Structure formats: structure tokens, C-alpha cells
Amino acid sequence: MKAVTRKKYGGIEVLRIIDIPKPETKENEVLVKVYCTTVNRTDCGILTGKPFLIRFFTGLFKPSSLVSGTDFAGEVVGIGNKVSSFKIGDRVWGLNDEGLASQAEFMVIKEKKAIVLIPNNIPYNEAVACAEGAHYAFNFINKVKLKKEHKILINGATGAIGSAALQLIKSQGIKVTAVGNTKNIELIKSLGADKIYNYEKEDFTEIDDEKYDFILDAVGKSSFGACKKLLAPKGIYISSELGPGAENLYLPLITKLKGGKRVIFPIPSNCTRTLNSMNALLEQNKFKSVIDKEYDMKDIAKAYEYVMTGEKTGNVVINFKI
Ligand SMILES: NC(=O)c1ccc[n+]([C@@H]2O[C@H](COP(=O)([O-])OP(=O)(O)OC[C@H]3O[C@@H](n4cnc5c(N)ncnc54)[C@H](OP(=O)(O)O)[C@@H]3O)[C@@H](O)[C@H]2O)c1
Q1: What is the per-residue pLDDT across 186-232, written as a single tens digit (0 to 9) for each?
Q2: Residue nearest atom 11 in ligand 1 by C-alpha distance
Q3: For the chain, what is the domain count?
Q4: In which domain, by residue range, is 45 found?
Q5: C-beta 161 within 6 A of ligand 1
Q6: Closest residue (by CA) to atom 33 of ligand 1?
Q7: What stretch of H or E contains 233?
Q8: Are 74 and 35 spatial neighbours (Cβ–Cβ below 8 Å)?
Q9: Predicted confidence (pLDDT) per residue in 131-186, tens digit
Q10: Is the dihedral of CA 301, 96, 316, 25 positive or negative?
């Protein structure tokens, strides 16, 4: 089978599409023919091995998996003899943010890992575009107790995480201020934002006079220091990035000890919970996949290059021939 591989950490020059043997299915595993995957910021982190912290999960000196990828949507084409939750022909999708060898024509995954059925009306590309960004968005949302009366600001509401967070929070009927760019103002409106700042024209930290219960920086371009004045007395700042000098790693402890406005930096967990929650929203038509570009597998290096610019809107999908 064709697979996207790399033997060391680096840029797109380390990527190779090569023929490797189709994986064998063990008794508790499912063999999936992959139709779609994404190239996301986690894939880029695993490709480059940066920030270094990521290597504790993906291999200290070189990637522990030859094949790249973190998410998939495809069809079950084989099952181990102890598998009971899936059958051949099932449409499935899944995610593992520590790496999944899913950028290949076939992949295996343990039945008990993060793999679920795709809702009937959802195509493969739309399903896979609800995985990685939504997982991190859920990760932030699940770490705090949101209430209808809360006010929330999302910086970077156009990214995979930000566009998912905006929709997930709006699905709970909560007011959201969103920060994005000129080309995506209509998109952000359509996803439900109540108030919008265009970061290309204005700096929300300078002009907004709201007091927020939560500020979620889904692009990591702000800081607790700059956003503090916009937080309510017990307001919480959450960023998807480590921040200047990796401050978002130690500020949670310092701000907790001090009391008042706080920083939290949730470590992502439980991909299966994300997939099940997303399925429920997709079935009720309460979540819209945001897809920026789609590439054929042969052009995957171009997709990595584009995602690494940090300028994608939502998700970048890779298609294998169906
Ligand atoms: N903590 C974790 O576990 C974790 C996991 C995955 C990703 N991340 C990090 O989270 C961040 C977001 O990931 P993602 O996949 O959602 O990113 P993404 O899809 O690349 O989106 C970033 C978005 O932010 C917009 N943007 C750029 N500069 C901005 C600014 N100054 N103000 C507001 N918006 C701005 C970009 O649009 P334009 O450039 O077109 O304006 C783009 O749409 C990345 O930094 C990534 O490394 C963290």
C-alpha cells in the first residue's frame, strides 16, 4: 500500500510516499481502508518534533511511527476474531493525537481505541474535519464549567480549534465574542458569533471593554498579561499555545496560588469522548465542518506546507481515491 512516511523529525523534505506492506490485523484490531485524513497542526508538530515536549509522546529522538497521521475516515475492510463492535463495510472515523499511522491507504486500530461509526448523512471528508480541532476545543471546554450567562471571547476563531470552539460554545446558547480576519468575517458570523473583532484592523485587547468569564486563545497570539484587563474578577485565560517563554505552563500554578484571574493549560485527553460528542452534534445538525482546502494524497507535502503557515481556515483534508 502507499503510505506517507518519515524516519526523522524535520520539515516537509523528510516526508516520503512509499510502498509498504499492508498492516496485519491482530485479534482485537480493525483494518480500515482510509478515504480521508487531515493535515493539522498536531501532524505538523509531530513532523517537526516541535515543541520538544511533543517528543515525550511521539518518540524522543525520532518518530516512533514510520507512517504519519492522527485522524481518519474510512471503511472497515477487516476485523480481528475478537472484535465485536464493528463489521466489514462500516463507515468509521477516529483520532489519536499522539499519532495514528493514518496517512496511508490502510491502517489498523484497536477496537477499544478512538474509532466510532460515522453518522449516516455525513460524508467522509466532513467527518474527518470534525476530529483534531474539535478535540482540543472540547478539551478546553470540558475543563471548565460553562453556564448560559457566561461571556466568552475566542481569539483565532477561524482555525480548526477556534471554529470548533465557537460552534461548541454557541450550541450551549452562550454569548461569544470572536476574533478573526477580514476574509472570514462572514464565516465567523455564520458560526454564530455575537460580536466580532477583525484582528487585521483592530486590537481587541485595546478596544473591548467587556469583562469575560473565559478568554480562549485558540491561536496562541495573545498573552494572559494582555488579556487580563478583559477578564472578570474570577475570569480564566486558556491558550492552545505555551505562550512567551512557555509561561502558560507555570502561570496556572502561580495564578491559582494568587487567587482571582487565572490561567489554565489543559492537557488533551479522551479522544473517544470527543468523537461521540461530535457524532451527537452532527446527527442533530448542530455542527458544521469547516474545510479550507482538499488535496490528493500525492500532494500531501503541499498540504503540510500550507498548514504550517498557520493561515488555514478550519481544516485541510487529504483524499485517497475512493
Ligand atoms: N495545546 C495543544 O494541545 C494544541 C494542539 C493542536 C494545536 N495547538 C496549537 O493551537 C493553535 C491553533 O491550532 P489550529 O489548528 O486551530 O490552527 P490553524 O487552523 O492553523 O488556525 C489558526 C487561525 O488563526 C488565525 N490567526 C492568525 N493570526 C491571528 C491573530 N493574530 N489573531 C487572530 N487569529 C489569527 C489564522 O488565520 P489568518 O492567518 O488567515 O488570519 C488561522 O485561521 C496552533 O498554534 C497550534 O500549534 C495546540
Answers
A1: 999 999 999 999 999 999 999 999 999 999 999 999 999 999 999 99
A2: 219
A3: 2
A4: 2-132+269-319
A5: yes
A6: 156
A7: strand 231-239
A8: yes
A9: 999 999 999 998 999 999 999 999 999 999 999 999 999 999 999 999 999 999 99
A10: positive
